[in-house]
Please model this.
Amino acid sequence: MIIKENTTKRNTIYKGRVLEYVVDTVELENGLEAEREMVFHPGGVGVIAIDSEGYVYLVRQFRKPYDTDILEIPAGKLDKNETPEACGRRELEEETGLLAKKLISLGEIYPSVGYTNEIIRIFLATEFECGKSSPDEDEFVDVVKIPFAELVKMVMNGEIKDAKTVVAALKAKALISNN
Model:
């Protein structure tokens, strides 16, 4: 059975540079009405870069919603008309200085299905060369290079909580283990 909610009214609360916040009135399967608060997002891309010696390149940056610094894979928002692959290459270079020669898709994730339509595409880079990083003017990141096995341990013991990094690490581990 397919369950569908029909939108009867949309109220745009806020439309910013990146996010749009709306409240939809919907008709439910049983005929009742409900409200759905949603945040629309253009989507993003994350890249887990693992070198030939088994080191992974992460970035540590302050994340205001959690009021702390977070260790995560390089990632960023898709620009209008930008392909996920182009975004992944751009973000990897901007944040770490690494120039990806090849990106392998690890799929896409829905980070929080209850209130946003954001889709994050995840890629694995195993072939890259070093260039020069150039973070955005409002972006302050430290590049952290650790053994990939250490990242997986950090994910498994709960030290890494960022969803895209958790998924990227576990999917990359599964892909590498199967090859």
Observations:
- The chain has three helices and ten strands.
- The CA atoms of residues 62 and 123 lie 23 Å apart.
- Residues 6-40 form one domain.
- The chain has a mean pLDDT of 94.
